[in-house]
Amino acid sequence: MKFSKLCTPTEHRMSRRQWLGAAAGTTAGLLGLGDLAQPAFAEELKKKRKQVLFVWIDGGMSQLETWDPKPNTQFGGPFRAIPTSVNGIQVSELLPRTAKQMHHLALVRSLCTKDNSHSAGVARIQRGDPKNRGVTYPFFGSAVAKLLGPGDSGLPPYVWIKPGSGGFMTEDAGFLGPKYGAIAFGDGKPPENLMRHKSLSAEDDADRNELRRLADQRYAKERRTSATEANSYVYEMAAQLQKRQELFDASKLAPRDVERYGTHELGRHMLLARRMLEAGVTFVKVNSYGWDTHGDNFNGHQNMVPKFDQAFSSLIEDLAARGMLDNVLVIAMSEFGRTPRINGHIGRDHWPEAWSLVMGGCGIKRGIAVGATNDKGTAVATDEHDIGHLFHTWFRALGIDPFETEYDNSGQPLPIAHEGCIAIKELLA
Amino acid sequence: MATAAGKLWICCVVCLLARPAMAADRLHTRIDALIASANGTKPTSARTDDAEFLRRVYLDLAGRIPSGAEARSFLEDRTADKREKLIDQLLSSPDYSRRMQDAFHVMLMERMGDNADWAAFLRKSFENNKPWNQLAREILAAAPKDEATRGAAFFYAKRLENYGQNPVDYPALTRDVGRLFLGMDLKCAQCHDHLFIKTYKQQDFQGLSAFFQNTFLQDAKFPTIGEKPLTQKVAYMSVMRKDPKTVGPRIPGMNEIDVPTFKKGEEYTKAPDPKAMFPGVLRFSPLALLAEQLPTADNALFTRNIVNRLWFLMMGRGLVHPLDLHHRDNPPSHPELLDLLAREFVAHQFDVKWLLRELALSETYQRSSILPKGEKPTPESYRTANEKRISADQLLWAILEATGERAGKEPAATEALRQKFVRAFAGPRREPEDEISPSLKAALFVLNDDTVLTWLTAQPGNLIERLSKLEDDKVGDELYLSVLTRQPTVQERQEVVEYLKKKSDRRAVALGHLTWALLASTEFCVNH
Fold it and tell me: What is the CATH number of the domain that holds A345?
């Protein structure tokens, strides 16, 4: 499969919309694999259920207070470095629990990306910075939902757990179309109307839906069937969700787990994420907000990093104990790091030049740190890696060949990752 | 039921087949002749029965279904011209301007947002049956702080809003004007001549873009936009051939407009007044020129675009489809018909109501959505009526009418409800709502929304209360007529009786379920 490097859109928007309507009722549409170019490959994917947990640390986590400490240097700040479970890898003392899980994890300390504003950075990072072809690329979650499909869990493929409001976040999906958008659990709660109404028993609900089915069958008998198929599809999907009510009920979390992950927001959300992964959701995104520490960076990180440490390390521990790390790719990252230079407000500003992230699990080598910054942490001293390299790496880790696979935007072939980049080999198991 | 009308219709068809339509015939007759001649001997669906026609024309022209009483009176009417009378009655009802306000709002704003002034502007325009060229001119001119056209500038204003730190998306504004007023999606031509659509040139995009590149949002409250003086042509270069070019403001298919130069301080005829949020009036205003030159009878792109969109509104598929891809390699399914509609529309002074009336009167419009036996006609053949998506507004008014909850609602209450329905049923921002595309969000809303479920319990005067007072064997008739605007079949009536018997210990709940199932059914939530 070769894709043209040129923008070759014929009538893409039309066909996408048509596809949405037409495929909605078919099995292919249900699996979300309908317009993948390689059906055999899709079959292969289905056999080994790969999943992703994507922790989005919004605003910019400081690499110096986390994954790439430079104690006792000009910009190093007040925190020490501590050893980890992997010989030779040290992290900030703010991450004592994650340090003990380092043998499951991989660090990348050679990120050099481009945008230093939040609005451009968040979208650019989460879309993998594809070349501009006049289409809006999907966020990583929608891309994975599309490429891996929902599996047979009966659950939506892309769930987003976040503070604030929830709902159906279709904009993440870009040209893939709204059905690949996220179902967002605002404040950890399911979107409006997801839970069966309190006045209805499960039997009542099934009963009225049976009447609806009967009416639809009768209507479709003498007419074109596509409208009925599309309508039935969404009601069947809703019925599947109603069967999993307990999963969406945060009050059903085990108290011992809540204690371990942390009673704070990120702890509860990360625990909910684990349950979603266990239940078979393909892609779970967890958001943590408030990391934009232009002022008082050190108190800020001293307050927030331990919460992240507690929740993240518990999750890694649990996934490892359950044997899930072989199939779940875990990534935690921001839109950029923070400046080595400490500003007049004892803060650090936006810094895409030299920063870090942590990942682990499915397809990723364990217990390594790839790349390095210079002594002061002001520049990448090894090969620089942009988000395009990471998309290649992640897709490969999930068993998807980013050069063989492409989106078929009805006639317009589109690469799934920036074709100017390749995977970071050292990271792949 | 409609035997007299049926005979008359057969007679009409015979006449039609017997002689070609003449120029002197009314437009709807000529429409049917052109559709018929393209179809040749292929079978078409039967004419709608009265009930199917009644529901369809109410949704299309009044934006709601008829009440039980309205339905009964039409179905019992035995006069031959009752369909024409109904069309005229709906076109002159206040429901018509509300329906058109909704249809044009959805078409032009594509769910980017609402604005009370814009809503009032559209409503008033359709109340007065403002000619389309004038309406388009007012929108495109966006005269600042003009009370007479207050709200018109919202089309631009919303598109010139800033989102966070993101820059204003000027290319998207250019695309939207091209798509919505000229039927040309110039997206790909922003960076290079379109690779597959030979007639979409980069110069077209850049020339159109030159009209907007100096516009800015002055006031979001009283939607007002301003223009900074344009002093030179726009420079651009293809990403394929590094060959620098320039172009001044230019409407696709027309001549480029020269950019004059003025001495500093002489650019305005009315100076800007920042305190009054008044952006000033330029001596050389690209927007004023756009508004003057684009919406004209001579601009075939403009006239074909609108008649194609009105045809789509009634027939469920554009003669050119997608609606924003008019070009040589995507020809109309019925080229002669598109020309005829454009010509006649211009001859009738861009009269939207007149055109909708003619479309509604055509047999093409009045065909059933039930397929001819053993046939699956393509949508563009119009041999069978195409099912149409209904908008969030149409659905709201239809559900209120069906459940008997429409009466006595305060306007403020219905506006809150409207917002709720828009959230549940509207398509994504910046996407046309031109296809039936049910969503999980919408299904969950119908399944579990508090308000909807309250309407399905007995409330004073509502449908469930009416049904609860009826004998089991009378429930089916009232239910089907109220919700689906038709009588139930014998089997459906029987099933209602059996269901109620089975649930006799919880009759109120059973009535709610029967009604819910019809509201959630495809038959209810599309316009068929």
Answer: 3.40.720.10
